[in-house]
Every structure is written in structure tokens, then in C-alpha cells.
Amino acid sequence: MKLKDTQAQNAFRYSWLMSRIYKYIHPYLGRAILGILVAIPVGLLDGVVALALKPYIDNVVNKAPLVIHGWTCPIDIGPFIPFAIILFAGIQGLFKYLNAYLTTWVSQKITIAVKKDLFKRLVQMDTKFYDDNSSGIVLTRFLSDPDAASNGIVQNIKDLFTNGFGALALIGVMLYSSWRLAIVGVVVLCIAFLPVLMIRKRIKRVSNDTMVIGGNITTNFNETYHGNRVMTAYSLQERQSTLFNEKLKESFDLSMSLTKRVGWMSPLMYLIASCGIAFVLWYGTNLITSGMMTMGALTSFVTSLLLLYKPIKSFGNTLTGLQTIFVAMGRVFELFDLEPEIKDAVDAQELLGVKSGITFRDVCFEYVEDQPVLKHINLNVNKNETIAIVGNSGGGKTTLVNLIPRFYDVKSGSVEIDGVDIRKYTLESLRSNIAVVFQDNFLFSGTIKENILLGNKNATEEEVLKAVELAHLTEFLNSLPDGLNTEIGERGTSLSGGQRQRVAIARALIKSSPIVVLDEATSALDNQSEEIVQKALDNLMQNKTVFVIAHRLSTIKNADRIAVINDGELVELGTHEELMNIEDGQYKHLYEMQFRKQDIVGV
Description:
Elements: H1 14-25, H2 29-44, H3 47-61, E1 67-68, E2 71-72, H4 81-124, H5 127-132, H6 135-151, H7 153-177, H8 179-193, H9 200-226, H10 228-233, H11 237-262, H12 265-289, H13 295-336, E3 357-368, E4 371-382, E5 386-390, H14 397-402, E6 412-417, E7 420-421, H15 427-432, E8 434-437, H16 448-452, H17 461-470, H18 474-478, H19 497-511, E9 515-519, H20 527-541, E10 545-549, H21 553-557, E11 561-566, E12 569-574, H22 576-580, H23 586-600
Parallel strand pairs: 5-10, 5-11, 8-9, 9-10
Antiparallel strand pairs: 1-2, 3-4, 3-6, 6-7, 11-12
Helix pairs in contact: 1-13, 2-4, 2-7, 3-7, 3-13, 4-6, 4-7, 6-9, 6-13, 7-8, 7-13, 8-12, 8-13, 9-11, 9-13, 12-13, 17-19, 19-20
């Protein structure tokens, strides 16, 4: 699946989305409900000021007795009203603090839980998934979308309750002041709220497009960081800046496109509300003149109406925000529904070592449909045999060895260990029997020892030191103040190429797997580093079934057999001497073109 092609198809299936996010809300449901309940008095207390104005104007300003449904208050409450307002404001402030704390706590917990499960899903994805998706898109989908989806859901639900009960309290004050004017005010505000319902699909499209552009921007950052030497060597600074600026412009244009289409909402709502207020003032004045309403009641009503505009507007913004969240949630649950193409069979069995050997039986493979990379490969490799794989560049050598640990699966045919299709073994047991040393081995941030132990986390100190010795790392480590505990930085950048390779070989040695795959493990090294690394590789290869793709003549000549793969086909197979005796043979031609120079200088 290409993540940039996401459509968030379920963005409007609100009940379905909430049923799936509920799994993450449920452990913190008590605090979530408490936060929502605290939001209720926060909203209700919005009506206190408006409610207090009626008795204050009538009783204090106009010197009229306070009458409530025919009952006349015997005391003058006017002087107490300002203090009561301060008290209620203090109570409301306390509730707001509790509400904010509980909401943030629950939101963060939900976000962390979602990210944990998403990361678990990410590490289970197969190699093709990473081939199809850029690092920027993956980072955006697996980090930014969970933030947008889960971090705001509780906050927005809380805001709905706060604004909803705030609106109810103010409508209650309006009804208390004048039911006639209240009908007018509510109808006007409902009309003002209608534009919010018109922008759902626009939000979905812009949200999806913004995600793609954000991923492209992150990819640009990653490529600039990791490719800084190539950028400097080829003076690509202007190119990278131009690409970055283009993405920023796309992001700006997208944002402005949304603003043009939804930016009129707020002014339109304000205009409708203003018309309503003007009508209320005109109608209210007539009611006062006719004696059907007091000045205090009108003041209280108008204040309620003005205050009501804020929660109604916030309510609209909250619904807009919720729609954005639901789009992000739709994308998040698309990720949860991802399934790796390469996974265990239902009846998968454990692989307990290699007893006879590995067989490629009529293997065909392609990365892109109808563009074959391997064509009907038949090859049998015996246990503890070393087979070198040579051939033209792009001929399929690396693809062939990548099929053994199931980085990819064959299109047709089968790869078998001891006569059993490797797809019938569990992935964990299959890969635990295979050690791979790549041309450019990835080292994780941490210490040298931690990177070696990745091969076998249960290895003893003695086993670690033995692997270090066999990988020819002892002398190098003795020159470091912290030895094995030396921090190597991100991707092992503090080490040379040869040192990184030897750490990777130590990692493979400590794994002690019966199958070893060496993919151009020395091709990027200078002669001196290559010689040391080759000694380490020789130790790794002892008593193992070895597949080696190499340019070093001694490795190839010393292999038990050599397989020549050209243009996806196995064209020759045999020992060095056998292949050299084939007149006009492809290995002989390759040797004379590529290897004889090495042979002359004694490599």
C-alpha cells in the first residue's frame, strides 16, 4: 500500500470511528468522564453574569424592588451581586483548571497507547512496504496522524460539553428574561450555525493533501540530512532549497484554498448574529415601551445573546476541528488495518537448523508486474557449502539472496530448506537461522556492545569477547577509552567503514546462525580495511552454509562453487577451474575483465 494515496474513506463513519477509538479511551474512561462532567459547570457558569444583570439593573440602578414570579425580595441584594460574580468566576476558574488537567492527561495517555500499537504495526511490515513509502510519509502517518486523531478527541468532546452547556445556560437566561425574544435569538443563531455543515468534504480533501505534502517536506529534510555529503560534493544546496520551497508553496496554496472556501464562515455568522441582535434591540425596546419587559431584563437578554455568540462560534470551530480529527482517525485506522504481505502461514512450523541444504526450485521474481528480475532459477546448495554469486550489475544477485530470509517472496517456484518451502516455516525461526552482512550495514545509536548484542541479546560476556576477537575488533577496541561501551552515534557515524563492517560481522558471529548471507560486504572498503574485514568474514563463514556476493577474487576462487547470474538467469555453475575451462564462458569473460587485475597484484 502506498500511504500517499490514502483517501480516509471512513472519515464520515462517526460511530465506527468512535467504536474503534473507544478501545484506547476505555482504560482512562473514569478520568475522561470526570473531565467532561467538570466541563458542565464551566459552561453553566457562563450565564451567571448575564443572569445577575437583570436584578442589578432593576434593583440597584432603577431602584425597583426585586420581583421573582410574583414574589418580592424583602432585602436589597444589589450590593452583594458584584461579590457573587467574583465568587462564581473563582469557582469557574477552578473547574477550568481541573478540566484542562484531566483532558490533557487523558489525551496524552490515549495518544501514547495509539502510537505504541501503530509502531508495533510498523515494525511488522515487510520490506516492500518500506520500498513503496518514503520516510517522510511514514513519519507523518505514524507520528503526526496519531497526534491529530487521539490528542484532540477528548479536548474537542470536552469543548462540545462546555460550549453546549454554556449555550443552554445562556438560552435559559434569555428565556427567563423574555421568551418572545429568546425564540428570535435562538432561530438567528441556528441560521448562523448552518455554514459549518457545508465544509465537511472540503476539510477531508485538504487534510489528506496536507498530510501528503507534510510527508514530502519531511522526506526532503531526511534526504538533506543523510545525503549531506553528496549534496556538498555535487553542489546540490540550491536544488534541495528549491524542492523545499516548492513544497512550502504547495502547503501555503492548499491552506489558502481552504481559507478561501471556509474563511467566509466567521464573517457570515457574525453578520447573521448582528442582524439578530439589531432586531432584538428594536423588538425589545418596543416590549419595554409597552411595559411587557423591564430595562434590566432587556440588558440581561442582550448580554446573554452576545455571550451566546462565543459558544456557538466555538461550537462551530469545534465541529470543524472534530471533522479534521475524524479524517486523521480514518487514516490511523487504515494503518491498523494494514497487513504485511509476508507473514506466517496458518500451520507454520519451526526451523531447527539446516540438515541437508537449500534449494531454489524454478524461482521467478519481479518487483514490478511483468518486469521479471529472476527467471526460472534452479539451484541446490548443500549444507556447509560456500557458493559465490557473480554476474552483471543489476542481474539479480542481491534479489536472489534476499529471498532466503523472505525479505520478499517468490512470484512462482519455491525456496526450500531441507526440502520444505521456507513459507511453511515461521518467520522468526527462519530468520534466526540466517545471519546477513550487507554492503552498508546499519548500526543503531548506542554502544558498540549494544550493537553486537543485537545478534543475540542473551549472549554472555565471554561470547561477546569471542565475537570481537573473531571479527578482528580487539585492537581497535583497546585503543578506545570506553572500549565496548563506546557510543557510536546515529548510524555509527563515528566509526570508519571498515570498523562498521567488523561490528556488523561481530553481530552476525554472535548470532551463530547456520546460514550466512554476505552481500557485497567488502566492496565499499579500501584495500587495507578490506583485508582485515575479509579475515573476519573467513571466521564467520566456518562450518556454515554461505551465500556470498563479492568482488574479491580470493573469496570467489575459494568458494566451493560459483553461480553466474546474468539478466535474471542462472547461466553457469561450477568451481573456478570448471568455469574457466568453458570456452567463451561468461564467468571466464567476467574474470578476464574484472578479476585478472586483482590476481596480478596478488589479491
